Amino acid sequence: MDLEVGLWGWLLSGLAAFLMGISKAGLKGLSIFNVTLMALAFGAKQSTGLIMPLLLVGDIFAVGYYNRHTQWKYIIRFMPWMIFGILIGVVIGKDLPEKLFKIGMVVVILASLGILIFWDRRKSKTVPNHWSFAGGTGIIAGIATMIGNLAGAFSNLFFLAMRLPKNEFVGTAAWLFLITNLFKLPFHIFVWKTISVGTLAINAMLLPAILIGLFTGVKLVKMINERQYRRFILAVTAIGAIAILFR
Fold it and tell me: How far apart are CA 150 and CA 108, in angstroms?
């Protein structure tokens, strides 16, 4: 797959990689924004594969930094459902036309935004702790991560339900996404064909941006309250999601 990248594409993807690094370093809430920027730069379906190697770089960093906080019992509970959802997403997305793929991606983005806004405004933080909750959110997260790398909002709901402290939340999520992203990799290479020598060359160019984001994120996580910028990110991401339809 050959991709021509103009100046605007490099600016969008560079910002996306930088913010991706910040997000993977522990400052959650930026993943939807990253995906939107990448989709605007490269197209909806192409961006899902192109972003994968960068996500894995971030996952490896996060696992190394937060590994001691990982709670494996929650990964074991959630991951099988998520993998099942990924397989459903592979089938749904393989031959889906670009236009329908864009619409599906936008629906997932807006649904994710709705969940995050609902969770922000909800007075009660109690979430049902039944196997069906893990199963339902896991399957949706798997479909969302395959179609648009947008599992964050759904996996966050599960981890919030488990009342994980911040560091355990980040450490557990880091291992979950490292494993599931590695599982997705062959499908992007051999089934969807969204990863190629050309996309890897773009990844290499974007590597400095994500590395800077990772080290910046480690510092910001100790300094900034996520609530201070959450509304801005949600608003800009909603605009970006709609903009994908007109690309």
Answer: 7
